[in-house]
Amino acid sequence: MPALSDVVIRDLRPDDHAAAVDVLVDSFQGFPALEVLVGRGDGARGRLARLFAMEFEPEAESSAVVAELDGRVVGVLTYTDSPACSALSAGRMVRFVRIAGTRIFGAMRMFGRIEKVHPKTAHRHLPSVGVQPNMQAAGIGRRLMEEFDRRCDEAGQVGYLETIRWDDPSKPSLERFYTGLGFEVTDAVPMTDAWHVLTMTRQPQANRSDTDRAIHE
Questions:
Q1: What is the per-residue pLDDT across 160-216, written as a single tens digit (0 to 9) for each?
Q2: Is the Cβ–Cβ distance between 198 and 185 less than 8 Å?
Q3: Number of helices (H) and strands (E), helices first, in the chain?
Q4: Using the 8-state DSSP alphabet, how is residue 203 labeled?
C-alpha cells in the first residue's frame, strides 16, 4: 500500500479525462443506482464509461479533483454548483437517453423521486467520488473529500451528495464515512426493497483565520 504522503491532490487536466473515467467506472461497478441507468452484463461497462465521460464535457459546468500517485490518476472527485447540477441541455439529454436505452423510464422515476428532495437553495453538488479498487482503504478517498470540504468552506457553499443505504445492514455503506466528514442525512428515499438513496448535506465551516480574527477583535 502506498504512503498517503506520496499522493498529490490537484485539479483535473484535459489529458486526465480518459484515466479519470476508468477510475470512476472501476469504482462504481455494481452500484445499484447506476445499474438502473446502464444495466448489467455485456455492454454495461461501456455505457457507464460514456455516462461518466459526460461529467467532463464543458457543457456540464463541473469541476474535478484527482488524486495522483507516481504520475497515475488513482482517485477522482467531481462537483457542480447549483443550479447547473440540475440542468441538462437538449443535446446532453439525447446522449443520456441513448446510454440508458429502454432503462430510461426506470431512471426517470428514480431521478424524479430524488429531485423532490434535491436542495432548492444554493449548494455544491458532489455527484461522484471514486478510488481505484486496489488503492481503496488507503485514505485517498478521505483526502479527496477533505479537499472538497475545504473548497466548500472557502466558497461558503453547502456541500450536497447522494449515496446508498442498503436495507441489509451487513452490506457496505459510505454513510458512516460521509458522516465522519461532517455530512448529515437529510432524506432517505426508498427505491426498492433492497436499498434507499440517502441525500446528505454539510454546512460550510468558518475559515479558521476568520474565526481567530473574530476571537481577538
A1: 999 999 999 888 889 999 999 999 999 999 999 999 999 999 999 985 444 443 433
A2: yes
A3: 8, 7
A4: P
Is the distance from CB of 48 to CB of 25 less than 8 angstroms? Answer: yes
In 54-195, alpha helices (H): 90-100, 104-117, 140-155, 175-179
pTM comes to: 0.90
Does residue 48 carry a pLDDT above 90?
yes
Task: Return the C-alpha cell found at 103.
Answer: 432503462
Question: Cα–Cα distance between 185 and 201 in angstroms, integer?
Answer: 7
- Taking residue 133's Cβ as centre, other Cβ atoms within 10 Å add up to 11
Lowest mean pLDDT among 41-50, 82-91, 146-155: 82-91
Q: In sequence order, which ranges of 57-139 are alpha helices (DSSP H)?
A: 90-100, 104-117
Counting other chains too, the contacts that 56-60 makes at CB distance below 8 Å and 24 or more residues apart are: 56/12, 56/17, 56/20, 56/21, 57/92, 59/89, 59/91, 59/92, 60/84, 60/92
Cα–Cα distance for residue pair 15/22, rounded to 1 Å: 13
Within 10 A of 204 (CB to CB), how many other CB atoms are there?
18
CB-CB contact of 75 with 131 (8 Å) = yes
